[in-house]
């Protein structure tokens, strides 16, 4: 039986990959959740949602990698805003872009540290508490319901690079009856 040169070369490559135990997926980008990972999302303020209790909506994520991560330009969005970012459609609601970190001359988050983006505001602004950076998006009252925009029953929180398509982490929920969700 005659085997073409290209076919036997291809077979040799597969054998080599099998020998070295390298799956095809190993060459792809880092998987979502391997670097920055969402650990909790505040989806629903207790009681009536108002401009005053917007901070009950938040996204908390952690650098779970072993190296510092530069979070400059990282976006924290709901599903509505994320889909627009990916499509290249301009929007100002339901989105927060990290530009700097409090008590940090850089935008590097060290291994194990947390970043929480609250939808409301705080007297004194952003701060660092222990190993957690607390950032306040001050969501506009025109966005969602009085500035609260994570759907209580079903939505997805996204942490991505500025292009939206490079996803660090996402967390979806499809229930109603609690105030926060965890992976
Ligand atoms: Ca909500
Ligand atoms: Ca509520």
Structural overview:
This protein has a single domain (30-181), classed as Immunoglobulin-like. 14% of the residues lie in helices and 29% in strands. It has two helices and twelve strands, in the order αββββαββββββββ. It has helices spanning 5-20, 79-87, and strands at 36-42, 58-63, 69-70, 75-77, 95-97, 108-109, 114-118, 127-129, 132-136, 154-160, 167-174, 180-181. The strands form three sheets. Strands 8-9-7-2-1-12 form a six-stranded mixed sheet, with no helix packed on it. A four-stranded antiparallel sheet has the order 5-4-10-11. The N and C termini lie far apart (55 Å). The protein binds calcium ion (2 copies). The site of one calcium ion (CA) has 6 residues, from loops. Residues 43-44, 57, 148, 150, 152 line the site of one calcium ion.
